[in-house]
Amino acid sequence: MKVFCDFDGTITVKDVGAQFFNTFMMKKRMDVVDDWMNGKITTRECLILECSLVRATKEEIDKLLNNQEIETSFINFVNELYKNNIELVIISDGFDYYINKVLEKYSLEDIKYYANRLILYDNNRVRPEFPYYDPKCPKCANCKGLQIERLKSDSEVSVYIGDGYSDRCAASYADVIFAKGDFFDYCSENNILCYNFNDFNDILKVLKQKYPSCFHSENSR
Question: What is the 3-state secondary structure (H, E, C) of the chain?
Fold first, then answer.
C-alpha cells in the first residue's frame, strides 16, 4: 500500500495557500480564483498572477506560517503508517515553502512531498516555479493524477486523500479515494466511488478493515 495525500485543508486545518494569498496580495484574489475554477486560466497562470501581486517579507510570511495547525489526528495516522512500513507521500498544487515550514513545526519533515516551488526575492517579492509541470495535464501545475501514476506500483494499492478542486485529477488514478468538501461533491456528481471522511481516524479505520494484511504491526491491532 502507498498513501498519497493533499496538503492544504486536508492535513492542515485551514488552506494555507489561500491564507497566504488573502493576507499578502495587494488586491482581492477572488476574481483570479473564479477564473481558475471556471477553467478560464490554468493553475500555473493563476499562481503566477497571484504571486505577482504579493508583497511580504520573509519575516511576515514566516509569522503567518508559524500559526498554521495540522489536523490533530494526522500525527497518529502517520505513526500507524510508518509502523506498518506504508509509505506516505504528500502531493500538492501549492508551494514547498509553506509545506516545509508546517511539517518542520510538527517534526514531520521526513515526509516526502511534491509541490510547486516558491522563490522569495527582493526582500518582499515572490515568484513560482513549476518543477513538476507536465504538458499531459496543462490545467494543473503539479498534476496529482500524473504524480500518482508515476509513483505507484502495480503490485500495491494506491490510496488518495483530498478535499478540494485541485484533487480532481487524482480520482482517475488512485485505487481507493477518501474525499471531503468540494472533492467529495465532485466524486459524488461523477459517480466516482469514494469514502467520505471527517478526520484521519476515519481513514485509518476503513483501511484497517479493508486491508488488514497491510497493518501487521502488533501495536496496530
Answer: CEEEECCCCCCECCCHHHHHHHHHECCCCHHHHHHHHCCCCCHHHHHHHHHHCECCCHHHHHHHHHCCCECCCHHHHHHHHHHCCCEEEEEEEEEHHHHHHHHHHCCCCCCEEEEEEEEEECCCEEEEECCCCCCCCCCCCCCHHHHHHHHCCCCCCEEEEECCHHHHHHHHCCCEEEECHHHHHHHHHCCCCCEECCCHHHHHHHHHHHCHHHCCCHHHC
Cα R_g (the chain), whole angstroms: 17
Task: Give the start-to-end residue ranges of the domains of the chain.
Answer: 2-216
Phi and psi at residue 18, in whole multiples of 5°? Answer: -65, -40
For residues 172 and 145, is the Cβ–Cβ distance under 8 A? yes
- Burial class (CB within 10 angstroms; exposed 0-12, middle 13-18, buried 19+) of 110: exposed
**Tens digits of residue pLDDT in 8-53:** 999 999 999 999 999 999 777 778 888 888 889 999 999 999 999 9
- State the distance between the two ends of the chain, measured CA to CA, in whole angstroms: 17
- Spatial separation of the C-alpha atoms in residues 16 and 100, rounded to whole Å: 12
What average pLDDT does range 116-144 have in this prediction? 97
Model confidence pLDDT, tens digit, residues 2-15:
999 999 999 999 99
In CATH, what number does 2-216 get? 3.40.50.1000
